Amino acid sequence: MTNKYDVIVVGAGSMGMAAGYYLAEQGKKTLLIDAFDPPHENGSHSGDTRLIRHACGEGYAYVPLALRAQELWHALQAKTNERIFTQTGVLTFGPATSGFVQTAIEGGQKYGLNIETLTADDVNARWPGITMPQGEIGCYEPEAGVLFSSACIRTLKRLALSVGAELKVNSPVMDIEIFDDSVKVHTPDDTFEANKLIISGGAWNKKLLNELNININIQPSRQTIAWFDSDDILYKSDGFPGFFADVPSGVYYGFPSIDGTGLKIGRYDNGDDIDPSYYNKTFGAYEKDEKDIRGFLSNYMQAAHGNINVGKTCMFTNTPDENFIIDTHPDYNHVAIAAGFSGHGYKFSSAVGEALGELIIHGETTQDISPFKITRDSLQPENKDEVYFKARGK
Ligand SMILES: Cc1cc2nc3c(=O)[nH]c(=O)nc-3n(C[C@H](O)[C@H](O)[C@H](O)COP(=O)(O)OP(=O)(O)OC[C@H]3O[C@@H](n4cnc5c(N)ncnc54)[C@H](O)[C@@H]3O)c2cc1C
């Protein structure tokens, strides 16, 4: 059976579900297809919460996108009773020499964000749950906070369906055919036809794109997160911020204890490359799963160093230069691609979804996505060690 749509979105996770909603809201006949039933535990959006930082240590180019995303999250919050966002503030910290912390501060200043630069004494006095050594500094953003990622995707799904989008779940896309002005998408049970296509397959993008003659090494990695039994007086979300730490032992991120779940923490820079369909999803399967994050807590947050309440695994997906791809296919402007959202993509998903919708319908978007072109040199294998933005002091 062949059904004809304006747009098919392959991968209805973080980026795809948002794109589907914004397209359907504009009256586009939209079909979302996912291999699972989003939100789910098999991709990159599981684990309930995601930090939204506006002063991004990953590079200045991310700041305007984060601000647009935050506007859209606030607008989404106004449309639902689900909890989408809570403004906990976020503290980015590390040695004063950290390129990540410096980029966060400079980006914040460049875009006039409400940020405070804090010394170790300031931080230790303000949040007694943190023990920061002398010589480290913090960049505090009071307007940043925590997104409830599963609730966001659930809300986007509900709204998308309410304005006419269709969603096929548990339907892995097996094959895509691209013609001059249309596409055909095959699942095990159906074939669907559309004028335009968005590919947002997260950790599976490398495989999907390889089949469309794009050979960029978009590599998934196994990541772990855990919720620690912690002192709620020190770490609960009405006083303790989200945090991102670029410190000598590694890069870590974490969340205050929300609703008594305990402080949540993960490591940002130490995942092992994996195949997204076959990897060990059991937290604790490897010694470093717990050891890495406990080491950080014992140095910086001793009163959050209790038993682990819950541990989970998830996937980051990195391009060779660790920056996103948001662009059309080099050979087909009716095919848009969203890939390589690494360990900090979730916060942008509302803005990325909006941009994908504009790009595929109008051929351009009001947001500056020029740094995320698929044809940039730093994605090519011979340039893989180049860093595209000024970021990362490592
Ligand atoms: C542990 C962890 C912590 C993180 N913390 C943060 C954070 O604090 N802040 C932040 O901003 N970001 C964070 N991130 C990163 C963020 O979650 C990801 O960048 C983002 O979720 C990626 O979105 P995506 O749409 O690319 O992937 P996904 O959300 O995984 O969506 C991809 C979808 O494509 C579907 N799919 C794949 N192949 C097919 C196919 N063949 N057919 C049909 N469907 C298919 C999948 O089922 C999936 O639903 C974190 C990630 C992890 C793993």
Describe the structure in brief.
The protein is built from nine helices and 20 strands. The protein has helices spanning 14-25, 62-77, 99-110, 120-126, 149-162, 205-210, 232-235, 287-300, 349-362; strands at residues 2-10, 30-33, 49-52, 85-86, 90-95, 116-119, 136-141, 145-148, 166-168, 175-178, 183-186, 191-199, 219-228, 242-247, 250-255, 263-267, 272-273, 308-318, 325-329, 332-339.
Helix and strand topology:
Blueprint: E1 2-10, H1 14-25, E2 30-33, E3 49-52, H2 62-77, E4 85-86, E5 90-95, H3 99-110, E6 116-119, H4 120-126, E7 136-141, E8 145-148, H5 149-162, E9 166-168, E10 175-178, E11 183-186, E12 191-199, H6 205-210, E13 219-228, H7 232-235, E14 242-247, E15 250-255, E16 263-267, E17 272-273, H8 287-300, E18 308-318, E19 325-329, E20 332-339, H9 349-362
Parallel strand pairs: 1-2, 1-12, 2-9, 5-14, 12-20
Antiparallel strand pairs: 3-8, 4-8, 5-7, 6-7, 10-11, 11-12, 13-16, 13-17, 13-18, 14-15, 15-16, 19-20
Helix pairs in contact: 1-5, 1-9, 2-9
Could you list some keywords that capture this structure?
394 residues, alpha+beta, nine-stranded mixed sheet, 9 helices, 20 strands, disordered C terminus, N-methyl-L-tryptophan oxidase, FAD-dep_OxRdtase, MTOX, FAD
